[in-house]
């Protein structure tokens, strides 16, 4: 009985993680085969599914799935609201790396991201304490169902200066969903964020890095920059926290390159590793990109 539970729990932990279990290849490979998961990049060359882009979500279907969240009209994107005075000095390339817009800009930067929250106040406080210590900003790619359960944690992320990211409502493989379902998965998160903290996210990352042309179109339509990652910490594969903080640091440093888009999660060993990781990145001369300095409406 106990064993079954442990097995199921472990399986659930694995399933809840973002990435594939395959270590991303070195960045020197071609864009279509680099660190982003193959399930995502495989769709990169397919023709866009434009004829369905304007399809409205079915109210009936949504009502069945999310009655509470569907009582009001779809949120109106408000990119202006999330915009700040911070100058757009960076853009994302096809490898999901962050590069300076001006060729003379500082290339030696990394983007910090944390997926699958918001989960726990203690964990978030720890992450933000460390980020503050290093004067670093990060994107928090969050799931709607978690925000729905803990709206106060979304407020915490926002109040402590976390940059909001949409990671779908249910953390499902969007590549396998209908366009209507994709719309609902993205719209419902934006609506929740708008209702709770009064702003909508400018960044979108599909669960498991698994998207499609339609998912990319939808993110763009909602003024969100679509990204997977280019440096996976592999923290989602770790289940024994004892030595794992060191492994988180090592995994990131092993894949480190200019513009690294670093995927991490709201996990205890990642929180434990963060101070050491940021210190080592700084020692190597890297700066942390403020996500608000990244161009969003150019894809
Ligand atoms: Zn995820």
UniProtKB/TrEMBL annotation:
Span list, region Disordered: 23-81
UniProtKB keywords: Hydrolase, Signal
GO terms assigned for molecular function: hydrolase activity
Chain intervals with Low complexity compositional bias: 24-63
InterPro entries (UniProt xref): Glyco_hydro/deAcase_b/a-brl (IPR011330), NODB_dom (IPR002509), Polysacc_deacetylase_ArnD (IPR050248)
Keyword Nuclease (UniProt): no
EC supergroup of this enzyme: hydrolase
Gene3D superfamilies for this protein: Glycoside hydrolase/deacetylase
Taxonomic placement: Bacteria, Bacillati, Bacillota, Bacilli, Bacillales
Protein name, UniProt field: Polysaccharide deacetylase family protein
Signal peptide start and end residues: 1-22
């Amino acid at each position: 009985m106990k064993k079954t539970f442990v097995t199921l729990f472990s399986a659930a932990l694995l399933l809840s993680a973002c990435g594939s279990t395959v270590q991303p290849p070195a960045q020197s490979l071609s864009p279509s085969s680099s660190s982003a998961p193959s399930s995502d990049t495989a769709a990169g060359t397919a023709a866009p599914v434009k004829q369905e882009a304007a399809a409205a979500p079915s109210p009936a279907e949504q009502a069945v799935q999310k009655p509470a969240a569907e009582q009001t009209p779809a949120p109106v994107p408000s990119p202006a609201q999330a915009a700040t005075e911070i100058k757009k000095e960076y853009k994302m390339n096809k490898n999901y790396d962050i590069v300076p817009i001006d060729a003379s800009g500082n290339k030696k930067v990394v983007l910090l991201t944390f997926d699958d929250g918001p989960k726990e106040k203690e964990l978030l406080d720890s992450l933000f304490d460390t980020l503050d210590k290093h004067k670093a900003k990060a994107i928090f790619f969050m799931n709607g169902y978690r925000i729905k359960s803990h709206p106060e944690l979304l407020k915490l992320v926002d109040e402590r200066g976390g940059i909001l990211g949409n990671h779908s409502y249910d953390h499902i493989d969007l590549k396998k969903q209908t366009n209507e379902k994709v719309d609902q998965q993205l719209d419902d998160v934006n609506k929740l964020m708008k209702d709770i903290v009064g702003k909508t996210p400018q960044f979108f990352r599909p669960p498991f890095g698994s998207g499609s042309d339609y998912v990319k179109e939808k993110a763009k339509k909602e003024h969100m920059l679509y990204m997977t990652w280019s440096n996976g910490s592999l923290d989602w594969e770790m289940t024994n926290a004892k030595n794992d903080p060191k492994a988180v640091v090592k995994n990131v440093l092993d894949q480190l390159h200019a513009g690294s888009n670093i995927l991490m999660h709201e996990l205890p060993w990642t929180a434990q590793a963060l101070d050491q990781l940021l210190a080592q990145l700084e020692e190597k001369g890297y700066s942390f990109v403020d996500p608000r300095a990244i161009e969003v409406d150019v894809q």
